[in-house]
Structure formats: structure tokens, C-alpha cells
């Protein structure tokens, strides 16, 4: 048994020397590929692999002092491990934990373990050529290598992540009314789950019970934006030189990928088929990124610029094949432009310059038949464009300040005139489909809307802060339900998302860290 332990000790020492040298050569940070200073590198190299090599050579000439030599080498290795650990802990997580630091620590620890085995066994020969003995040694070494690999992975990523996956939905079914959840944004609704973004990551909530289905939280990086793309959730975390983008399965929360990209501040994540489009907003929005939502591969990068100058990004919408980006460019006066990009390649397919100009920024929506832009002062001018070619079709005056895409139509909500009303317009032709007055909502303003499964949900607020949700048929505008929405105070921030037969209203106080959800 001593011979096996001695043989394993020598092999582990050899691997520790290689790992330590490799760790010192590799970058310790992802951003800037930074290393420790040369004096520190020399000190670790001397205490670790160099002194171990000298001690192995010396032990062969003085076998009677092998335990003393192993003790000296083990203590030196422990000193190297302490120094490497202290330096690795100084690396800022936002800069990215490179492979170098954790690998150096693991290599130094391996030296200590190897020399400890030689202290215990003392002098002696190694096993002969019998395969059984060396098989046992190999098994020990493989186990230690796996443990070292897990330790490196934990040091780089695992210690910062608190992630769970979803099990079966709870049997308890209850309507959630103004229940508080940690979060700053309602990302969306998919099936029986509401997805919330918080400053530390993503949580999914069962609509039937309000229980947490799964979560992906990080203690090292703040989240910037998130979106539902294809059948997954894509969330962007801020780093020193860009973003860390993580893809998760919506149904289970299982991680698909987690990769870093150079980018400016990300404010929105939109879906364009399987492509997640990450974008900033306003002035200095920076490049748009197109990322495969299933494996994290960067498909394209596009700079919003015209005539040699950067443009503001004012809105974005996506179809399965095209991304429509609304821009405000100032290289030659104020110019509002909509640009169509291929979802898979980012190549510009078409561009359209707004005829009506004004202070109101260009907006763009996707209906199942194509894109619709809104521009100009009230009543805004709506223009239909083919998603693939950008060819311009019918135009119409927007019938309200709030537009909600619903199938092939746009449903407008307005509080102007004698009483609030809803109106539906066929996007492709501009033809009016229906218009209904809302006598019971005098004094209310439309603030948010969503549509799903043939129903439209419009959220209204009065000057006192009270909220009411109106559910109507997207086909004819007939009222399905009208009810008050509970709100903690004045609820200055409110949003709504819908999927299937569910609508979720999220309210939040300004700069608060809790969302109050009401679920239909």
C-alpha cells in the first residue's frame, strides 16, 4: 500500500508542477488578460514547481532524508498555495475570473498533497511493471484531477451562481392578487410561468400558486436586461468591458450557455426567431448584438450609424426573419429612420425614412403581417411595411396614444375626446375593424397593453393612481372583463404581459426592489 501511495504522490507532484506553471502562464482575468506582477510570479514559481523539482532531485541522492526533504517541499508548496489563493481572491469578478488564478491554486495544492503522501510513506521503491498497481495509482490520480477540475469551475463561476431548476407545478391553484416578489421588471409570461428580472438575476413564478419555480441569481454581476426568445430566457449581466449573457430554458430554468461579449450597456433583449437581439437605447446605444438563443454563438454585430455619425436607438421589434430598428440620426439634421436587418446575419435588408418629423421619437411594432411604424405629432401617422422587403403599404392615423399589436391588427387605446375608447385597425390595409367607447373609464389614461389568444388586455390609471384592467375580444372589441387592480400606493411604474389565457400585471414603486403581481 505504501508503494502505491508513494507512486501516486510522485504523479500528483508532477501534475501539480505542470498545473502551477500553466496557471502562472495563463491570464488571471478575462478582461485585459491580466497577470500578477513578475516578482509574485517568480516567488510562486520558486516555492512551488522549482523547489519541488530540486527536492525530487536531492531526495534521490539522500534517500535517508527523504521525509525531511518532502516536509520542506510540502511547506514551500503550502506557502505558494496561500500566496496564489490571496492573489486570486483580489481579482474583481466583474473583470472575469480567468483560468490562471484557480489553476495555480489547484496546482499548488496538488504539490502539497503529493509531498504529504511522500512524508507518510518515506523512502522506498516504486511499484514494478504490474498493471494492477499502476491501475490503482491511475484511479487515485483521475479522482484528484476531477476534484481539481470541479474546484477550478467553482472558483471561476460556481461560487457566484445560485441556480435552481423547476419541478412539477404545485397542485395548489389560487389567483395571485398584489403579491410582492423580488424584482425590477416583468420580462414576460410563458405557459404557466411569469418570468421576473431582479438586480441579481432571473426568477420564474408559478402563476397558479405564486411559488418560485426556478431561479438563476448571481452575486458578482448586476443584471441589465432580459427577454423571452424562442423557448428560452436570455439575460444580460454587466461586466467591466461588456456583458455576460446567459441563456436558460423557460420551462425548467436549465442553463444553456453563459458567455461574455464586448458591448456597451444593454437595455433591451428582443426576439427575432431564434436570435436574441441585445441593444442599448437612446444616445450612445452602441452596437446591437445578434446571439443564438440556444447556444450563445454571436451571429452578428451591427452599428447604428448613418453618414459617418452614430444614431440614437429609439425602438426595436423582431419577426422570425427580420429585426426592425428605429433610429434618430443627426448627422444632417434630425432624421428618423427604420432599418430592417436579417435576423440570422444582421445584414441590412431595407431602410425607410420618416416623412413626418417632430419631437416624438419613431416607434416600431410587429404584427403577424408585417411592421408598423408610428411617427409625428398626435395623431401619429402609422405606416405599414413588409417585414422581408420593407416595401411600404397603407398608411393611417393612429387612433390613440397606446398601440397594442394583436394578430394582424393594432388595437389603439385613447382617452381623448368625450370618453375613452378602443379602436382596432387592420395593419396591412389601414382599414378600421371596430371602435368601442368606454363610458366607465372617464378620467383614466391607458398606460400599458398586451394581447394573446384572441384577447387584448389594456391597463388604465386615473390621476389618483388607481388601476383598472380591461379585457376585450380582439375580434370585435366586446368587453370580457373589467376589474380593479390592487396597488400598494400610486404605482408609478406598471406593465402587463399575456400568454394563453393568463395576463400578469406588475406594479413597482420607483427604484424599489419588489414587484407586485396581479394575475388573471
From TrEMBL:
Q: What domain of life? A: Bacteria
Keywords (alphabetical) are: Membrane, Transmembrane, Transmembrane helix
Report the InterPro entries cross-referenced here. Quinoprotein_ADH-like_sf, WD40/YVTN_repeat-like_dom_sf
The record lists the membrane-crossing segments as 7-26, 38-59, 71-91, 103-126, 133-152
What is the protein name for this chain?
Pyrroloquinoline-quinone binding quinoprotein
Q: Which organism is it from?
A: Dactylosporangium darangshiense
Phylogenetic lineage: Bacteria, Bacillati, Actinomycetota, Actinomycetes, Micromonosporales
